[in-house]
Amino acid sequence: MFLKHVLRKPFLILGVGLLLLCGMSAWYWHMYRYLPEEVPPPLNPRYRDASLPTEERIDALLASMTLREKVGQMALVEKNSVWDKRDMSTYGIGGILSGAGAKPDDNTVGGWRDMVNQFDTASRASRLGIPALYGADATHGHGGVPGATVFPHFIGLGASGDSTLVRDIARATGDEIRDTGITWSYSPTLDMPKDVRWGRVYETFSDDPALVSRLGVAYLEGLQGAVSTTTQQKFSVLGTLKHYIGAGSMAWGSSSNKNFHIDQGTTPADSVRLPTYLNPFKAGVDAGALSVMVGLNSWGETKLSGEKHLIQDTLKDQLGFKGFVVSDWYSVYEIPGGKYNASVTAINAGVDMVMLPFEYQTFVQNVMHAVAEGDISQGRIDDAVRRILRAKFALGLFDREGLTPDTHSLGSREHRAVARKAVAESLVLLKNEHDVLPLRKDVGLLRVAGGSADNIGKQAGAWTVEWQGIDGNWLPGATSILAGLREVAPKNTKIEFDEKGNFSKDAPLADVGLAIVGEKPYAEGWGDTALPILGAEDLETIARLRAVSRTLVVVLVTGRPLLITGELPKWDGLVSAWLPGSEGAGVADVLFGKKSFTGTLPLPWPATLEQVPIKEDESTTDGSETLLPRFFGLRY
Ligand code: BGC
């Protein structure tokens, strides 16, 4: 009745509509466009003088900056949020990121370079011409770009235990990143997983602090490179130690994300364990890291991005970290009390650069307001910006115009050779009854089955083209494990393949059946699982293959140890291949004995669910023996 009455009054509707429109525009203007006017201080051009020491250049630049320009430097904005590139200079944005899967429409090296160049040029057009950082997650190679070399995920590198190899991989990754114009990678991950149910186990080297420290430093050094092209430039690409801290020790069921179980959960605030968690970060800081990412987890009750004791007091004051601390994704705004309070808390806790996936305008306004109100000191802002600028100077960004040239290294033959070697070194031999491996030269018939045998997407895992990975064989230049077997097999070995293991029962038995099975790609909390086991389909495939083969070898293509205790007695051989990436032939090199098994388990392999989480000293939750201990690995 009432609605009918109102609808009959067009002027009333028009008036209310206009009022609403004006209100919304005023709100929008205030929230997103209003920035207080500031009189810029006189410009001190000494920051451009490459002959001066970096700290002097930073002093000169800081003295030339307005508050807005400083606060803008503290914003790391997701590239899809920047609708108007002029905002790069209006807000003085400090960094841009391509969140997982955030690629240019033209997903080629040229497409990436164009996109990065636009942001770079727009940032250099600002009053002081401060170049923005551009960051991406090149977690196992520059996997976001089709055609890149996709290296084994870190868990496989942990199994290799080879720091020279890890340094080479990181160097190659750095080359491929730089070719796309990117200056910053969010790696290496230094998390240490205690619970195989966590969806990020494969992103870690190991649960052993000493191994993580050793490989983390090797990776950082390889990625950042030793550059001496100018007196100031220390790095070719900036690395990031993540996720600070205690990531991997969150309790099951504690996630702050309703879709997840353990990722983004709570790490018990245990000061006794803190030195163990700090160990790899200390090693990375001592090796010259200039960026650390704070995790999405909580430390006890406190969201880590707001943990002053751990960020300011421990990382910066105690460990002497001189670089900048960046927050992860939306974590700052997950600090309770609204966005203003969250920004104040995080910055006062020591976060220097805030990752802003969805907006930056309110951030800049809030922080400027907080300084005016005395909620954040000018000194804290200067310290944050000094740290960010230190990394930019270390990258030589001020001492060149635009991007470094494309060296056409992406997916190069040399890099693929490093990756193939890495695959071979990452394999771990877990069972080898009757010396079924290496496959003998006189194997006449080899039957191969399983959903991971001829699926590059599965063997590459997540953070490959898409955040959650891809399914199938459409990664240019890559080799599936099956294709690798065909390439390496001796001439007299016939290979038959059926994904589901449906071979004719009337045909003669195969000498060896090779079941290549495992997990579908997953990233972050989407990979949290209550029961990490092989799926029914895989088990059926294995059973079918078993029935038509004299001996059976299972190759697991997984991001974590799966619970296989009940199945293991039925298999003659077992190999963990982790997530090998684009060079599947590395698996064949070892299976056919061209190379030996050298890998060892980077973490203990649980026998039952009741054993997890497992501590560093390998003691299990229920006190029983694990299936296999850390560093287990058979040799030929
Ligand atoms: C992840 C980080 C990653 C960031 C940027 C977050 O969801 O936790 O590891 O660096 O996204 O893509």
Strand-helix topology:
Layout: H1 2-7, H2 10-33, H3 54-64, H4 67-73, E1 75-78, H5 87-90, E2 95-98, H6 109-124, E3 133-136, H7 154-160, H8 163-179, E4 184-185, H9 209-224, E5 241-244, E6 266-267, H10 274-286, E7 291-294, E8 298-299, E9 302-303, H11 308-318, E10 324-327, H12 338-349, E11 354-356, H13 361-373, H14 378-394, H15 413-426, E12 428-432, E13 445-449, H16 456-460, H17 481-488, E14 494-497, E15 510-518, H18 536-547, E16 549-557, E17 573-576, H19 585-591
Parallel strand pairs: 1-2, 1-11, 2-3, 3-4, 5-7, 6-8, 7-10, 13-14, 13-15, 15-16, 16-17
Antiparallel strand pairs: 8-9, 12-17
Task: Give your account of this protein's structure.
The mean pLDDT is 95. The chain has helices at 2-7, 10-33, 54-64, 67-73, 87-90, 109-124, 154-160, 163-179, 209-224, 274-286, 308-318, 338-349, 361-373, 378-394, 413-426, 456-460, 481-488, 536-547, 585-591, and strands spanning 75-78, 95-98, 133-136, 184-185, 241-244, 266-267, 291-294, 298-299, 302-303, 324-327, 354-356, 428-432, 445-449, 494-497, 510-518, 549-557, 573-576. The strands form four sheets. Strands 12-17-16-15-13-14 form a six-stranded mixed β-sheet, sandwiched between helices. The protein is elongated. The protein is built from 19 helices and 17 strands. Helix 6 links the parallel strand 2 and strand 3 (133-136). Helices cover 35% and strands 11% of the residues. Helix 15 packs across helix 19 (585-591). The structure holds beta-D-glucopyranose (BGC). Beta-D-glucopyranose is lined by residues 99-100, 137, 186, 242, 296, 328-329, 524.
